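How a chain folds remains the central question behind the approach discussed here. This step matters because it turns folding into a mapping between discrete strings. The sequence in question and its structure tokens are set out directly beneath this paragraph.
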Amino acid sequence: NLSTGKKEAIPTKAKLIVGDILNQKLLEKILPGHDAIFHFAALIEAGISFVDPATFFKVNVNGSFSLAEAARITGVKKIIFSSTAAVYRPKNTPLTEEDLKEPENPYGATKLAFENLLAAYHYSYGIESVTLRYFNAYGPWERQVGETHVIPNFIKAVLASKPVPLYWHGAQVRDFIYIDDLVKAHILALKIKGYNYYNLGTGKGTKISDLLKLVFKICGKSAPIEDLGKREGDPQVLVASYDKAKKELGWVPTVSLEEGLAK
């Protein structure tokens, strides 16, 4: 619906239909004849979900339900879903797909709700699905309005010689996965049958303070720190085990953090 997306990001070979995931009638009109749906449409900022959970549930749950219903009605038999590590309540490192799923913020709860709906639609209606739980995704051309992701904010601040926004003194540990590796997983998911779910991460945790040092190194300059204190809903450590994706999808991440940051 272009509330955050950009028309210029659409490849020329793709057909752009401007609409809304909440408009089920529109979905029923455009879905017939397609083999699969890649479902990326969502509100994604966990911090904002604390402030406005109602809008997150409306878009991420009700909108996703409209999509599943439209798929059922029009006979589309496969959905590949963009989910998140936020479905977990992290107690172990690295996290496996079977670890405890008790989301710590409304955003994660909306994603887990649709994961469960996909299970029901598979067993009830035969719709196949692959849920891909992203850890910390990053890469070129991210154009989020009101950017909150750590890597683009670090890079933009350092290049502009402005204070770098830093929560928790950079003590959190995250698993950063490059966009090209994510894309490969989605393509591989097209061949998987049934109802499935996979972590997409590198299996390597990076402390945010070390990430900032790496950004300084690659940019060839440093910048002052803006200490933002605590941020609600931030788990201390989020690192993926991708063993299941490796075994069943034949997927392994290949882009190192330093290489991805440089790109």
